[in-house]
Design a protein that fits this description.
Number of strands: 7
Strand content: 15-25%
CATH superfamily: Vaccinia Virus protein VP39
Structural class: alpha/beta
Order of helices and strands: HHHEHEHEEHEHHEHHE
Helix content: 40-55%
Radius of gyration: 18 Å
Largest sheet: 7 strands, mixed
CATH class: Alpha Beta
Number of helices: 10
CATH architecture: 3-Layer(aba) Sandwich
Number of domains: 1
């Protein structure tokens, strides 16, 4: 998950790599998102798959769609789209070169994977626009308008966009609260000033020519779910730097969920 990567950057000698095994995924193309947790969830990979599946359902993903996956990490989502949706025309964007190299080796059937920031998609010169653009558990590191400026132009007319981000509640923060959340979120490479309320988010999407906007609050299933999962593993987990990063992320998730000021949401919309 991008939060772990961001926290890892703050620590010496460790930048982007995530030890997915410590999260509970031993696969070659491992999942690294916060996951969607419910009473039936029995494993970390299942939770991650459920988060991806909910997003796919939100955009009504179909086999014939031309699909772009943004911030695909170690490639688990790409493998999922190939195996469960039989996507034939699939491209991806990932910032980490080591992940790009691994995916090219493990998933050669993918049409293309680009080592690039998803805020700079205009530099990639895609041959044609996409029917669906998906961004799992990553867009909240960027200003929403910058994200939309990059993504919307590469969508087909009636193309569907699905992503996760963070949302501010309507609670008015005083100066002390603003300072607290500024530093809490900065540890996860999230800028408090970039976060918006539901009304502001809807307006931003509409201003970029998106309609049929559906906003779903997943805070309980994602923030609380991930923090509770890590708490159950803490007694058996081995120590070390990676474990510290994971614990930091889980504690941040727990705090955000309990205080309710910052919510974790899923968004889907259609380009007009």
């Amino acid at each position: 998950m991008k939060w772990l990567q961001a926290i890892q950057q703050k620590l010496p000698k460790h930048k982007y790599a995530i030890d997915a095994k410590m999260l509970g995924d031993n696969a070659e193309c491992a999942w690294t998102n916060l996951g969607y947790w419910d009473e039936a969830t029995s494993s970390y990979p299942q939770a991650c798959q459920q988060l991806a599946e909910r997003l796919a359902q939100a955009v009504q993903l179909k086999q014939h769609d031309r699909v772009l996956d943004l911030g695909c990490g170690q490639g688990a989502s790409l493998k999922y789209w190939l195996e469960h949706y039989q996507i034939q025309d699939l491209e991806a964007v990932e910032l980490q070169q080591q992940c790009v190299d691994k995916i090219q080796k493990q998933l050669p059937q993918i049409k293309a994977i680009h080592c690039q920031s998803f805020l700079n998609l205009n530099a990639l010169f895609f041959t044609q626009p996409f029917d669906v653009v998906l961004c799992i558990d990553a867009a909240y590191h960027s200003d929403l308008n910058l994200f939309l400026n990059s993504v919307v132009p590469i969508l087909n007319l009636k193309g569907r966009l699905g992503f996760h981000t963070l949302m501010l509640s309507d609670t008015v923060l005083n100066s002390k609260q603003k300072m607290k959340y500024k530093w809490l979120l900065k540890a996860a490479d999230v800028d408090l000033k970039s976060l918006m309320t539901a009304t502001q988010i809807n307006h931003a999407l509409q201003q970029h020519g998106l309609e049929q906007i559906v906003l779903e609050d997943l805070s309980t299933a994602v923030l609380a779910g991930f923090s509770q999962y890590i708490a159950t593993r803490a007694k058996t987990a081995h120590g070390g730097l990676d474990q510290i990063k994971i614990q930091m992320t889980a504690k941040l998730c727990q705090r955000l969920f309990e205080e309710g000021i910052v919510r974790y949401i899923q968004l889907s919309a259609v380009k007009t």
